[in-house]
Amino acid sequence: MQIAVLLYDRFTSLDAIGPYELLGRAPGAETVFVAREAGPVRGDQGSLAIVADRSLDEVPAPDVVLVPGGPGSRAAMRDERVLDWLRVADTHTTWTTSVCTGSHLLAAAGLLKGRRATTHWLTFDELVPHGAEPTRERVVVDGKYVTAAGVSAGIDMALQLLGRIGGDELAQTVQLLTEYDPQPPYDAGSPEKAPAHVVARLRAEREGMYEA
Amino acid sequence: MQIAVLLYDRFTSLDAIGPYELLGRAPGAETVFVAREAGPVRGDQGSLAIVADRSLDEVPAPDVVLVPGGPGSRAAMRDERVLDWLRVADTHTTWTTSVCTGSHLLAAAGLLKGRRATTHWLTFDELVPHGAEPTRERVVVDGKYVTAAGVSAGIDMALQLLGRIGGDELAQTVQLLTEYDPQPPYDAGSPEKAPAHVVARLRAEREGMYEA
After folding, report:
1. Partners of B40 in the β-ladder
2. What is the rounded distance in angstroms from the CA atom of residue B96 to the CA atom of residue B142?
């Protein structure tokens, strides 16, 4: 099972690494980080670079595609080479997946037309022009298309996928190995739960954060 | 606030990236990935390399040190250059932190003598020879030393630290931005909760997983 994790400038690191950490532990999994060109790709905070070991051309037929989100997703959505790769790779995949605004790339490639999908809570309206049906769930499964909400939701998505790929015991084993027994000290992880003024401030700042 | 994330061969990627993703969003934070030598450092699954932008010598006085765990931690614990760097860096830090078996490096450097600390649930006994007091909590704070349990626990640690560094509202803002509202589809994230035969199998496999 070849898992291709797409990287592009200004991706959000946890979007990619959360699900990678868990999915990569499936028996027989081979993960490959891919980008337009092989080499280091820098994330949205500027201080982290992950190495893409392969260019897009070198990974034409993965079994699983994982597209992270990030402020750079808007630029990547306009990159026809990236969109073409997604379209062709998707004809081979068992699962085509995204975290956060990564679903906008899948949508821009035309893969989510008429499908239920999710994204970061701040960017729901951006799924509509591409024909996807925005769905406010943490992980949305529609056929082989699996989209996760913002950033950390990719970890929950990975556990769901592990269960479907290898059964409950595989998922439970990986959950135990990664000690995923979350105990957040605050309860502010969704706009319904966070203090209203924090939600309002982030909505106001949104354009600055997600501009290309 | 300079945050130094230590990398070494066969580190576990989510140990480093989980807390990096959240802590790096603190106002004024500058994160730097460091290793023995600058350049790509490959994680425990073999398929991921993160670039260390600086060598240890170039980052002598960080404000926060973050040490991830991983199968390579046993080798790193015997690397006097790494341990010396930890000892000197620690004289400058406001917070000295670890995730998973990263605490074994702090312990080997002599920094956890007589202190409460945690680690991956499979490796508790390994803290004892270095004088630490193993403590089964998800995040343990003892003075400026903050240790997290296995892999995903670093995310909870980061939220605690953000609260202490910048106040509750900062932590809540970052939790909302990263949409950290965990909904794991299984409840197997600790040895108390996972099916007994899964726990038993991992205990049996432990030596293979954590050997250097």
Report:
1. B51
2. 10
A139: chain B residues, CB-CB within 8 Å:
183, 185
Whether residue B183 and residue A151 make contact (CB cut-off 8 A), yes or no, is no
Model confidence pLDDT, tens digit, residues A16-51:
999 999 999 999 999 999 999 999 999 999 999 999
A2-185 — its CATH code? 3.40.50.880
Instruction: Return the CATH superfamily for domain B2-183.
Output: Class I glutamine amidotransferase (GATase) domain (3.40.50.880)
Nearest to A98 by CA among A85, A111, A88: A111
Select from B139, B159, B179 the Cβ nearest to the Cβ of A190: B179
Structure token pair of residue A197 = 């003024």
Give how far B122 is from chain A: nearest CA, Å.
9
What residue has token string 């899948």? A106
Q: Does the distance separating the beta carbons of B198 and A176 come in below 8 Å?
A: yes
Q: Do A177 and B47 touch (CB under 8 A)?
A: no
Distance from C-alpha of A182 to C-alpha of B181, rounded to nearest angstrom: 9
Nearest-CA neighbor of B170 among A17, A206, A194? Answer: A194
Q: What predicted TM-score, i.e. pTM, was given to this entire model?
A: 0.96
Instruction: Give me the residues paired with residue B66 across strands.
Output: B5, B97
Nearest to A194 by CA among B27, B154, B171, B19: B171
A1 interfaces chain B, CB cutoff of 8 Å: no
Signed CA dihedral, B123, B124, B125, B129: sign only: positive
List the domain boundaries for chain B: 2-183
Q: Round to whole Å and give the CA distance between A187 and A113.
A: 34
